[in-house]
Design a protein that fits this description.
The structure is a single chain. By secondary structure, the chain is mostly helical. Helix content is 70%, strand content 0%. The chain has six helices and no strands. Helix 2 runs antiparallel to helix 3 and helix 4 packs antiparallel against helix 6. It is elongated, with a radius of gyration of 19 Å.
Length: 161
């Protein structure tokens, strides 16, 4: 097992010295992590759409709209990366249609507490998955570069706001 200084040195050599060399293809674990995270984000957006369709609380709606924007940005960024690397995008469910919250029966409708707790749980699950994907990354431009590091930072920003 290499020491931390050797790992940092190898990362620096890889990012500085390989300017003209082609990038190595993604490892199967990296591709799987991209697919899994993309699918989680898309499912997360569907949950947020369900929350927007069932809540009448303005604060919850504002939070859901903010989280939808963050998730859509991550999906767009990761989707563009996957397209550039030649990875086909996973099939995901389509957007939920807009509905009136008062038309949904109470036994079916999510309460505001359930929506907020679900969002918190999904944010934690996505942050954990992002950290796992970053740890599993072999290529430095994915783990410490533009992909997982930026996604992790946007999750942290969500918690701090």
């Amino acid at each position: 097992m290499s020491n931390p200084f050797e790992a940092v040195w190898n990362y620096l050599k890889q990012t500085v010295d390989n300017v003209e060399e082609p990038k190595s293809p993604l490892h199967v674990i990296e591709v799987g992590d991209c697919w899994k995270y993309m699918t989680m984000m898309e499912e997360f957006i569907r949950y947020e759409e369900i929350g927007l369709n069932t809540t009448v609380d303005d604060e919850v709606k504002e939070m859901l709209n903010d989280v939808v924007k963050i998730c859509e940005g991550q999906v767009q960024r990761l989707g563009q990366f996957m397209k550039n690397e030649g990875i086909p995008l996973p099939d995901v469910t389509s957007s939920k249609p807009t509905s009136e919250p008062n038309d949904i029966p109470l036994g079916v409708k999510l309460t505001d507490d359930e929506i907020v707790n679900g969002i918190a749980f999904k944010l934690v699950a996505c942050m954990r998955e992002c950290a796992k994907a970053q740890a599993d990354s072999i290529r430095g431009d994915i783990g410490m570069g533009d992909v997982w590091n930026n996604i992790k930072n946007s999750h942290a920003k969500t918690w701090l706001d």
